[in-house]
Design brief:
It is built from ten helices and twelve strands. It has helices at 17-39, 44-57, 101-111, 119-128, 142-156, 168-171, 173-180, 241-247, 249-258, 263-278; strands at residues 5-13, 77-83, 88-95, 116-118, 188-193, 199-205, 226-228, 234-239, 282-287, 293-297, 301-308, 311-315. The protein has a single domain (5-315), classed as Glutamine Phosphoribosylpyrophosphate, subunit 1, domain 1. Bound molecules: glycine. The site of glycine has 13 residues, from strand 8.
Length: 318
């Protein structure tokens, strides 16, 4: 029987001091929920779903209620989870009427021969499997309306960090850094190892502030912001999605673990690669089936939590 392990993250960015406690409490609550599942002998996939559900329900984070708004003022959510023991995955993107997209993704994983649903089709699939649909306005906070207003004013004034549409390839990393370093990337995620030795990963996000409706980021794309395979590792990423997608960075990191690199080192290598290749910023949690793990970020902070046989820990920097 394996000793269970759980890692969670609540986004990597310049978390301001007045938001630090909320971030640390949030990851602590998520850790508690996921760890309870694991210590009762529950599966890694149940643990990551439980942990991410708590983070989606916490308006501190850019996932579920309280997410960033699209340029037309709506919440559009993306989520993926993957079971590395069964090699099953489920994902949803651009959903607007689902409170917990990670639970909709789990329905896809368990109940569908398909792997990924988007938009209205995803919502109809979830509803047909018993999930109530809500009004999009229930996910929208005044805090986010204000944040969008400022972003749009900055955009109208021609200021570079108004959106996160990503021009890193033609402007080069040096130009990209100041645009994103202080920007919030509160995408949430979890990776777990259960007592049966199976690993799983989950990632959920509201995407980037002022995104064009229909935009999908890295978080819910297999191998980009989330991946798990018992033969390699489980990974969840947070950060500016476009560079992560172009590098298929989650799979890049798990392949390195499969090739023998220690997860602690592979996590750091992945974030260096993200920055050196495309000027990207973000964070990663990475867990091997042998229980070795790694975390890294190149942002000023990343909210993280870790549960091992030594107890539960949280922090805002690695
Ligand atoms: N990493 C979240 C996003 O870019 O959508």
């Amino acid at each position: 029987m394996r000793t269970p392990i759980l890692l969670v993250h609540g986004g990597a960015w310049a978390i301001p001091e007045d938001a630090a406690a909320a971030h640390e409490n949030g990851v602590r609550n998520a850790l508690d929920a996921g760890h309870r599942v694991l210590t009762r002998g529950g599966s890694a996939i149940d643990a990551v779903e439980a942990a991410v559900t708590v983070l989606e329900d916490d308006p501190t984070f850019d996932a579920g209620r309280g997410s960033f708004l699209t340029s037309d003022g709506r919440v559009q959510l993306d989520a993926l989870l993957m079971d590395g023991g069964r090699m099953k995955a489920g994902g949803v993107a651009c959903v607007e009427r689902i409170r917990n997209p990670i639970q909709a993704a789990r329905l896809v994983l368990e109940q569908s021969p398909h792997v990924y649903f988007v938009g209205a089709g995803a919502e109809e699939f979830a509803q047909s499997h018993g999930m109530p649909l809500i009004e999009n306005a229930e996910l929208v906070l005044d805090r986010e309306r204000e944040r969008l207003k400022i972003a749009r004013e900055r955009e109208a004034a021609g200021l570079a960090d108004a959106t996160f549409s990503g021009l890193e390839d033609d402007k080069g990393p040096e130009t990209a850094i100041p645009r994103v370093i202080d920007s919030s990337h509160d995408t949430v995620g979890a990776v777990a190892l259960d007592t049966d030795g199976n690993i799983a990963a989950a990632t959920s996000t509201g995407g980037t502030l002022n995104k064009t409706p229909g935009r999908v980021g890295d978080s819910s794309l297999i191998g980009c912001g989330c991946y798990a395979d018992n033969l390699s590792a489980a990974v969840s990423l947070t950060g500016w999605g476009e560079p992560i997608m172009k590098l298929v960075l989650g799979k890049w990191a798990t392949d390195r673990v499969a090739a023998g690199t220690a997860p602690a080192f592979a996590a750091r290598e992945a974030i260096s690669y993200l920055h050196n290749r495309l000027g990207g910023h973000g964070g990663i949690i990475l867990l091997g089936p042998d229980g070795r793990f790694g975390m890294a970020h190149n942002t000023p902070a990343m909210a993280w939590g870790l549960a091992t046989e030594h107890g539960l820990e949280t922090g805002l920097k690695i």
